Amino acid sequence: MFARSSAAQSTSMSASSAPSNLGAQAEVMPVPPSADLALSKTHPPVAFTTMKEMWELVSFQYKILDQGGENQYLAFARATPAQFESIEKHRTELRCHVRFTYFADIETLIVKLPGMAHETAHRTFAQRLQTRIVQIGIAFDEFVDLGASKYRSQHRSSKEADSSWLNQRIRSSPEAWPSLVVEADMPESMLRLRSGAR
């Protein structure tokens, strides 16, 4: 299990999609095409049909994980923004813990299935980091814990972090991007981890 952090100043995004709240001092880096971030070539998505079928696939994949499997991801193509909105509204019906990354421009949904080892990795890292932050005297509003919040780009794509923090003294806007993000993953999913950190 790996945990990886990513400073928001190096968050990849194009100049046209960079939120204005990052400020003039932020370094804006070019963003790869969504198909590259979604790893569509190496991990081809299956076609989205219905929420019922998607929930069945997620439940089945969780059973595989419980039996020692290490693939935490399912990818769905042709999921329209309206369908994704409906999926989000009905996510409690799944009765499983999931995190979503959605690429609106290519209508692709990545479903991440965090298990116990996954949650232990990033939460333990977060606890140790928070303890160290207190020890060195950083003020509360300089390191606000946002947990697994969802972040959106200007072209309607979105991603839910594992753990994230925000310096509210620098970024006070409700739409501000986080100052620090932590993503955890299984060793076999290193490509997904690197993609998520971008």
What does this structure look like?
This protein has one domain (2-197). The strands form two sheets. The chain has a six-stranded mixed sheet with strand order 2-3-5-4-8-7, with helices on one face. A four-stranded antiparallel sheet has the order 1-10-9-6, sandwiched between helices. Helices cover 29% and strands 21% of the residues. With 198 residues, the protein is α+β, with helices and mostly antiparallel strands.
Feature tags:
198 residues, alpha+beta, 6-stranded mixed sheet, 4-stranded antiparallel sheet, 5 helices, 21% strand, globular, disordered N terminus
Helices and strands in order:
Layout: E1 2-7, H1 34-37, E2 46-47, H2 51-66, E3 73-77, H3 81-89, E4 99-103, E5 108-112, H4 116-135, E6 144-145, E7 150-152, E8 158-160, E9 163-166, E10 180-185, H5 190-197
Parallel strand pairs: 2-3
Antiparallel strand pairs: 1-10, 3-5, 4-5, 4-8, 6-9, 7-8, 9-10
| Whole-number tally of structural domains | 1
**Major beta sheet, strand line-up:** 2-3-5-4-8-7
The largest pleated sheet is described as: 6 strands, mixed
Q: What is the count of helical runs?
A: 5
Residue-averaged pLDDT: 79
The shape, in one word, is globular
Radius of gyration: 17 Å
Element order, helices and strands?
Answer: EHEHEHEEHEEEEEH
Oligomer: single chain
Distance between the termini: 19 Å
Report the helical percentage: 25-40%
Strand content: 15-25%
- The helix-and-strand class reads alpha+beta
Which regions are unreliable across 5 or more consecutive residues at pLDDT < 50? 1-26
